[in-house]
Design brief:
Number of strands: 38
CATH topology of the largest domain: D-Maltodextrin-Binding Protein, domain 2
Strand content: 25-35%
Number of helices: 17
Structural class: alpha/beta
């Protein structure tokens, strides 16, 4: 198969204009009739007019008596008037029809009953007093709703009241979703504990896309997984475009690899309008038309798939239903660091957002297009225009919110060294009833201290060893946080060591083995406490880092190190015991270290910070941490040092 290279990549705006201009909405949209009681949220396909008046008869608006107004004229306190039942008035209740001979209602509170057949009036009535006249609410033939009106709960009452018992609405479009890839397996065919044979991947993009389709008010139809076969993909696409589906999404196979067949299939059956969009993630998007129906070649990486859907399929689904996509709320944020970006490509950067002081700060998350967790963890998205080479930490930039703005007020921003117990902390805070989010970013211990200095986080997680004194964190606080009053609380003591393959096939016994030519190592990033510890141990042993295979191979979390060892990308890496246990790997202890939460003293009394401290002091948190293995939470929440910041 000849590779399909992106010859004419389009900007996001160009791609949207080309795609939407080639779609005949009248050809692919449809109308259906639904009962008024079932019409909530549906959008009218045409104007809706009242079929009857409401009320359709004159009725009493109050409890009292029905009278002719002219027979009450001249009545005063000095000249009261007595009316006779059946002749001058009748008793009437709210909502009852008003007999033709009467034209007003006097409230019962305004009457004096003389006897069973007579009442006395002390003030006159005027015509149509306390009467709901015909058509007071709705007049037959009047416009109730224009075309493209979304029906709300109270609109249903108006429809039924006006005699409109069924209404024409835009039909919810069906979207056929075709997952492709010979390496994929359906989660529905597996149990949660079942081992997956070979190098198979669990397919989930189609279910994410299906959820997005439902959120847009449409109906997803997920096809069976199609292997990497041009013939099979062609056959499935043909079935999809001949079905009731109004839009077809082919997920994966849209890039330029030798087994990426989507562009060839669409071209053979219809027209390829765009192949390649200058957006990141989402570059391999294909936009085409087959049999008059839009066909989108959606990238296989999860984040690319979602962003491609939101830019091209989501607006189209709303168009087909006479609607516009709801606009995300935006706020101004301060990036926690300078963020470079590729010139000529619009980037959708996932960020964690929290309010620190009076500013909203945004911490970039991983840019990996295949990392679904970057969207799970993100509070917002920063769109970096194609004409910029990045954004600066020295100014504000707009971010689209993925959460309610109120949640940002109750977000605690934790930046620094990675530790699994931070995730336990985030969950345990919610378990204890606090409505608080923990937004964390793993930039290493030193990065956390610098973030505190720049006032872009509330708490820094740190385990920086002073190799001269053996003390953790304090010398670094004195060096990097001059002028800032700091309180240091212990989170945990933990076991650091070498994470190695199960069974230790290479017989690794300690740090000294890292310079062996048959051992491949995976390192942590510069500035992390783990890297400081490693370099200290290497210096003690006289081992040259340049002699270690993989010393320059860096990961940002303990779990990433463990995954590299599990996958065979490395024989070992320095990390915490809990990460080794989590992936059933072996472990060689190296150091018992102290992991602290570094908090500016000025914010200690804030309710959110107190909630964090109360949580890490709780018995339940400590028990959960102990169950991870390799942790000692005996001093969790203990204030062991205050640095005056002079």
């Amino acid at each position: 198969m000849k590779r399909q290279v992106y010859l004419e990549m389009k900007s996001l705006e160009q791609a949207r204009d080309i795609f939407f201009s080639h779609i005949n909405l009248d050809q692919i949209s449809a109308i259906e009739t639904v009962r008024a009681g079932d019409s909530l949220g549906r959008i009218t396909s045409g104007a809706v007019f009242a079929k009857r008046s409401a009320p359709w008869f004159h009725s009493a608006a109050m409890d009292g008596i029905a009278v002719r107004a002219d027979k009450t004229y001249g009545t005063t306190d000095r000249h009261p008037r007595v009316l006779k039942l059946g002749e001058d008035f009748i008793w009437i209740n709210t909502g009852q029809p008003l007999p033709e001979q009467f034209n007003a209602v006097i409230m019962v509170e305004k009457l004096h009953e003389v006897d069973e057949d007579h009442v006395e009036l002390r003030s006159p009535a005027h015509p149509w007093q306390n009467v709901r006249k015909v058509g007071e609410d709705i007049v037959a033939t009047q416009l109730l709703f224009p075309k493209n009106h979304r029906i709300r709960s109270y609109d249903i009452g108006g429809l039924i009241s006006a005699g409109v018992f069924s209404v024409n609405v835009w039909k919810r479009p069906q979207v056929a979703i075709i997952p492709t890839g010979s390496e994929l397996v359906s989660y529905e065919s597996l149990s949660e504990t079942e081992e997956i044979s070979g190098h198979k991947l669990i397919e989930y993009n189609s279910h994410v896309l299906a959820g997005l389709v439902r959120e847009a008010g449409a109906i997803p139809v997920i096809c069976e997984i199609v292997p990497d076969s041009e013939e099979r993909i062609s056959h499935t696409l043909k079935q999809a475009v001949e079905s009731e589906a109004r839009i077809v999404i082919i997920n994966a196979g849209s890039s330029s690899g030798s087994k990426d067949y989507t562009v060839h299939v669409i071209k053979a059956m219809g027209e390829v309008l765009v192949h390649g969009v200058a957006m990141m993630p989402g570059k391999p998007t294909i936009l085409g038309i087959v049999n008059g129906k839009p066909v989108v070649g959606n990238p296989g990486y999860a984040v690319s798939s979602i962003l491609s859907f939101e830019q091209f399929v989501k607006p189209l689904l709303h168009m087909l239903q006479g609607d516009h996509p709801p606009a995300r709320k935006t706020i101004k944020v301060w990036p926690t660091r300078d963020i470079p970006s590729k010139l000529g490509t619009e980037e959708f950067l996932r960020v964690g957002i929290g309010k620190v002081g009076e500013r909203y700060v945004a911490t970039p998350l991983e840019r990996a297009a295949g990392s679904i967790t970057t969207l799970i963890r993100a509070e917002g998205i920063i769109r970096i225009p194609a004409l910029l080479e990045g954004v600066s930490q020295k100014g504000e930039i707009e971010a689209e919110l993925l959460v309610d703005e109120r949640e940002l007020e109750d977000t605690v921003v934790v930046i620094g060294s990675h530790d699994i117990t931070i995730d336990i902390l985030a969950d345990e805070i919610r378990q204890r009833g606090y409505d608080i989010r923990v937004s964390s970013a793993n930039v290493g211990s030193l990065g956390g201290l610098i973030a505190l200095k720049k006032q872009t986080c509330h708490i820094a997680g740190s385990h920086l060893l002073d190799t001269e004194t053996g003390e953790y964190n304090i010398s670094y606080i004195n060096r990097y946080l001059k002028g800032v009053g700091i309180s240091v609380f212990n989170l945990v003591l933990r076991e650091q060591g070498l994470i190695i393959s199960k069974g230790n096939p290479k017989g690794i016994r300690g740090i000294a083995d890292l310079e062996r030519p048959d051992v491949t190592f995976v390192n942590r990033q510069a500035g992390s406490g783990t890297r400081v510890l490693l370099d200290f141990k290497l210096k003690q042993l006289g081992v040259d880092p340049a002699a270690i295979r993989g010393y320059d191979h860096e990961e940002f979390t303990h779990m990433a190190v463990a995954v590299d060892v599990l996958s065979g990308a490395a024989d070992c890496g320095l990390g915490i015991f809990a990460a080794a246990i989590a992936l059933d790997l072996d472990f060689v202890p190296v150091e018992r270290e102290q992991y602290d939460l570094i908090i500016p003293s000025a914010i200690l009394n804030q309710s959110n910070i107190q909630a964090v401290l109360n949580t890490i002091r709780s018995e339940n948190f400590r028990n959960r941490v102990i169950s991870l293995g390799g942790y000692d939470p005996g001093n969790s929440g203990k204030l062991w040092k205050e640095v005056r910041g002079e």
